[in-house]
Amino acid sequence: MYQIGFDVGGTNIAVGLVDDNMRIIQRSNIKFPFGKKYDFVSQIMANEARDLLINNGIKENHVSGIGVAVPGSIDSSGEIIIDAFKLGFHNVPFKKSIQSHFPNLPVYMANDADAATLAELHAGALKGCKTALLITLGTGVGGGIIINGQIFKGGMGNGVELGHMILNHKGDVCSCGNIGCVETLCAATWLIQQGRKAIVEHFNSMIYTEAKGNIENVTAQLVIDCARAGDSIAINIFEQYIDALSSVIVSFINLIDPEVIAIGGGVSLAGDFLFSNLRKKVTEKSVYKTYAKIVPAQLGNDAGIIGAAMLHRNF
After folding, report:
1. Ramachandran region of residue 197, left (φ > 0), alpha (ψ -120 to 50) or beta?
2. Of 156, 139, 145, 4, whose CA–CA distance to 74 is shortest?
3. What are residue 269's phi and psi, to 5 degrees?
4. Please, are residues 73 and 111 in contact by the beta-carbon 8 Å criterion?
């Protein structure tokens, strides 16, 4: 049997045909039609999924289910997108809309971070874990928690918002409106902001040279590469970043004592330069002598599709 997984983003919608071994048989991408109504979006998603089935000679009765991962909050029943700002969707009965195109198949819907966590649990870095954590470090900070081998959806079904725990109550304003959220200090966006500040204040920095003095050329990877190369300004930025991220990780270790913490997202591509420094800082702060392994997530951009396709296993 096969499953269809949709990973819906504000720029693109990734669609994948996934087999029972959690392998993506074929995938495609379509541009997200921002500004269109949700029923239009569900229609183009259904069309794309049917094209995948046709291209692979698979009939609908050989599909066991459909999963949809979206970047937003989902109601406890898994039926309604409460808020998905990147999609422009608010209080949208999206599951029902998808279901209308596939009346004979079960449809599941979840937050994209939960779907990615589920993928890592079944096919990636968290495989075999009973208690674990995925943290994704991109333009925002997200992730999911595994408790007793299951996605933890919150005591009241509201899910978890790792990126919106408050890390510095005197810090910067977050996109959610609160002050000093984890996202304000641990997202790639923070590295970019600090890199741009360095260009303005430190003309002799490698960041300035590599970005050719143009703040638009600054990326999180550029800042990390400059730190790796030994630039003192970039090293200072990177050390502040590691300090903040390690505090978040130690807090989770103290709270749920996970077996493994996997880190994904664009920042994780810094590899051992990130992980070795992070592990060292966590060791300095940890109250435990033995604690979670801190490892890279394994599935990358496939996590959303695979996790969506696997929703029937946990939801």
Report:
1. alpha
2. 156
3. -70, -10
4. yes
**Quick one: three-class SS letters along 200-247?**
HHCCCCHHHHHCCCCHHHCCHHHHHHHHHCCCHHHHHHHHHHHHHHHH
Give the count of beta carbons closer than 10 Å to the beta carbon of residue 156: 7
Average pLDDT, the chain: 94
* Residues found in the chain: 315
Give 120-145 pLDDT, tens digit per residue: 999 999 999 999 999 999 888 989 99
Q: What is the DSSP letter of 181?
A: B
Please give the domain boundaries of the chain with CATH numbers for all domains: 2-120+302-313 (3.30.420.40), 128-298 (3.30.420.40)
Provide the pairing of β-strand 132-137 with 141-147: antiparallel
Q: What is the largest CA-CA distance in the chain?
A: 64
Residue located via tokens 């590469």: 225
Report pLDDT digits (tens) over 143-164.
Answer: 999 999 999 988 887 778 899 9
Instruction: Give which of 135, 146, 144 is closest to 265, Cα–Cα.
Output: 135
